[in-house]
């Protein structure tokens, strides 16, 4: 582990790089399952946190293969 980022929420759900230079880290959190006491202690639960970081993520490699239309028949 090179570094650790603390956020004001106990349930981190995911993170992703973004921003113009892909040097912003977006950290999502959840409120689900927290008690009233925990929500009082962590009122920012459920928010998205952002932090500028010194490293950059990778630009997405979009898949450019044409896809066929798929139709579904419901019984």
TrEMBL record:
<feature type="domain" description="SMP-30/Gluconolactonase/LRE-like region">
    <location>
        <begin position="2"/>
        <end position="31"/>
    </location>
</feature>
<dbReference type="GO" id="GO:0004341">
    <property type="term" value="F:gluconolactonase activity"/>
</dbReference>
<dbReference type="InterPro" id="IPR011042">
    <property type="entry name" value="6-blade_b-propeller_TolB-like"/>
</dbReference>
<dbReference type="Pfam" id="PF08450">
    <property type="entry name" value="SGL"/>
</dbReference>
<comment type="similarity">
    <text>Belongs to the SMP-30/CGR1 family.</text>
</comment>
<dbReference type="GO" id="GO:0005509">
    <property type="term" value="F:calcium ion binding"/>
</dbReference>
<dbReference type="GO" id="GO:0019853">
    <property type="term" value="P:L-ascorbic acid biosynthetic process"/>
</dbReference>
<dbReference type="InterPro" id="IPR013658">
    <property type="entry name" value="SGL"/>
</dbReference>
<protein>
    <submittedName>
        <fullName>SMP-30/gluconolactonase/LRE family protein</fullName>
    </submittedName>
</protein>
């Amino acid at each position: 582990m090179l570094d650790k980022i603390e956020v004001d929420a106990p349930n981190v759900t995911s993170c992703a790089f973004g921003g113009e230079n892909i040097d912003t880290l977006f950290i999502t959190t959840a409120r689900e399952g927290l008690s009233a006491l925990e929500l009082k202690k962590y009122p920012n639960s459920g928010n998205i946190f952002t932090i500028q970081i010194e490293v950059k993520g990778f630009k997405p490699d979009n898949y450019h293969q044409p896809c066929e239309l798929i139709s579904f028949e419901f019984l």
